[in-house]
Amino acid sequence: MMKAIMYHYVRPDSPEYPFFRHLHIDEFVKQLEYFGNEFGFLSQDEFARSLAIMEPQKGLILTFDDGLKDHFQYVLPELERRGLWGIFYITTSPYVTGKLIDVHSIHMLLGKFGGSVIAEVLQKLVADEYLSHSHIEEFRTLTYSRQKNSNDTVYVKRLLNYFIDYKFRQGIIDQLMLQFFPNETTLVEEFYMTRAELAGMSRKGMVLGSHTMNHPVLSKLSVSEQEEEIVSSYDLLEAIAGKQTLKTFCYPYGGFHTFTKATEEVLDRNDFAFSFNVESKDIEREELRSRRQALPRYDCNLFPYGSIRESSVEA
Ligand SMILES: [Zn+2]
Q1: What are phi and psi of 60, to 5 degrees?
Q2: Are 17 and 73 in contact (CB under 8 A)?
Q3: How much distance in Å is there from the Cα of 80 to the middle of ligand 1?
Q4: From the CA of 10, how far away is ligand 1's center (Å)?
Q5: What 8-state DSSP symbol labels residue 183?
Q6: How sure is the predictor about 150, in pLDDT bands with cuts at 50, 70 and 90?
Q7: CA angle 277, 187, 305 (to 5 degrees)
Q8: Ligand 1 midpoint to CA 188 (Å)
């Protein structure tokens, strides 16, 4: 019945980023057509009314995460052409620090240089003392399997996301960025929507929501740290783009392990109308009535034309 869809990267292939994993813009267009025929889209008024009367309606709404330039450059024109709207969830720290969010740095490093180049450098950078002790054996096994199978992208992601002790992680990513993308400020401007573009989106009837400042797994933070991530990012967003018609939030990474009951209470207390989780199901009456800070949302790749791919396939 009522469905929300989640998108991340939506762009054409680029020779500069041969290994980048994204939904091709042409596939996005085909998927919009499919969704229009199959389910239809809810207008912003219809969606707001569903929230008000706590009854789902038949139709679909579109959401886009991480404040990516893709959404201004490629998605917005397609939405405008069809008279559609979307909710865009923005992480705000890049507007303050001029730096990429960690997870995006990893995507850019792998997307431009590929897993094997990054894995080589990373293997030299990471000394044993950087590894969290519980994972050392796993790390050795992974290193061994990398040499055998050269599944380098998996190696890089697991090393950075799981095996390196959290206190060294930022330093290692900073070193990689310095080596491979020495001009990070320019990269930030190309990668995320600018402040002016955010304001432009809002003027054109798109809704901007908070996606925290730093894109952490909120459940790992104290409640007051969570509140700071949520409230400060929303305040900055409205300072940049003006007051929004719907006050909304979406959890970084998503899934029920990424937030807690206390997070939902923070959102209620700060008057967020609703928040999105990632869960492959329709939005039902039950959630609209009693679980508004964890509305379910499908990944676009669960529907036709939504598959993510690389520009050129890494062997
Ligand atoms: Zn995100």
Answers
A1: -130, 145
A2: no
A3: 24
A4: 14
A5: -
A6: low
A7: 45
A8: 16
* Residue 90 Cα to ligand 1 middle (Å): 8
Q: What integer pLDDT is reported at residue 315 of this predicted model?
A: 36
Concatenating the DSSP letter of every residue in 46-85 gives HHHHHHHHT---SEEEEEEETTBHHIIIIIHHHHHHTT--
Take residue 206 and report the two structure tokens written for it: 């798109």
Residue partners of 288: CB distance under 8 A and separation at least 6 = 50, 51, 54, 55, 56, 295
Q: What is the pLDDT of residue 314?
A: 42
DSSP state at residue 174: H
Lookup: tokens for 277 = 């989780």
CA of 282 to the centre of ligand 1 (A): 20
Calculate how far, in angstroms, residue 215's C-alpha sits from the geometric centre of ligand 1: 6
pLDDT bucket at 45, cuts 50 / 70 / 90: very high
Name the phi and psi angles at 126, rounded to 5.
Answer: -90, 110
In whole angstroms, give the CA distance from residue 225 to residue 221. 6
Mean pLDDT value across the chain? 93
